[in-house]
Amino acid sequence: GTTLASAAAESGRYFGTAVAANKLSDSTYVGILNREFDMVTAENEMKMDATEPNRGQFTYTNADRIVNHARNQGKRVRGHALAWHSQQPGWMQSMEGSALRQAMLNHVTQVATYYRGKIYAWDVVNEAFADGSTGARRDSNLQRTGNDWIEAAFRAARAADPDAKLCYNDYNTDNWSHAKTQAVYRMVQDFKSRGVPIDCVGFQAHFNSGNPVPSNYHTTLQNFANLGVDVQITELDIEGSGSTQAQQYQGVVQACLAVSRCTGITVWGIRDSDSWRASGTPLLFDSSGNKKAAYTSVLNALNAA
Ligand code: G3I
């Protein structure tokens, strides 16, 4: 393949990117998007604060711009994210208890129903575990509604959009030896054993010097896949530059390619200047839209599969 998407497609995988609606008028950005990627994630436009800014009033204008652009171009869409402790609208941030639980489930139901049949995979719940050595759930208003809030969200999503894959998505879950990774693994194992509807686990894969690509990444992805779920790399970016960065990208791609149930890779933006990171050069295209060494190493790794 001569593009990321066509190279990934040769092994039945997708290659995606996060997209921001306000960049769809940038011709350089759109040119790269249309050429290189076959999966799209809305960077912010499908989040709870964007889609339900006032309680019970749903707005899909910006999300639809992204979904329609993707579908008109023959690309698929990952839905991000139905339930999350962060990026909640103000009205939800101040809620608690059973009222919050009902509001969260209504949000999941409404958004998943609106997009029914159009989403490849939903990040149903995002970032529900704490960092550090405890393996505990992250404290949040949603967690305080009861430990079963995650499975309740998955059941609501399945009822609303039965053909979409339903994912749990998190960061710092790449290293198999970390407590957070083990805790997510045990949750997925428990969900599978009890019939809670979960189809996939997303690994955000935001890497930097303090959180490098682990040498056991393949082990992590394979162990999760062995639970009977697909795995996906959902928000990949790697701080750095040059051949060091290119080698790290290669390692991530090779880890996915080595796991048959690793169905695709999404990078979290197109050009370095599109990255959520305030400074740095973590993506595959430079700020002018030129291919970086990391791009070439990813393309070559995909083509070697
Ligand atoms: O659009 C407004 C603008 O009008 C306003 O003037 C400006 C002032 O702060 O804010 C702009 O919104 C910002 C938005 O990005 C668009 O740029 C928000 O403040 C800012 O919080 C938001 O950041 C996003 C962040 O999620 C929010 O949690 C990043 O773009 C987005 O890349 C990032 O993505 C997350 C994933 O969803 C989950 N995993 C981690 C990943 C990286 O943090």
TrEMBL record:
Please list the residue ranges annotated as the GH10 domain. Answer: 1-301
User: Taxonomically, which superkingdom?
Assistant: Bacteria
Active site at: 235
**Family listed:** Belongs to the glycosyl hydrolase 10 (cellulase F) family.
The name under which this protein is listed is Beta-xylanase
Which part of the entire protein is covered? 38 to 342 of 666
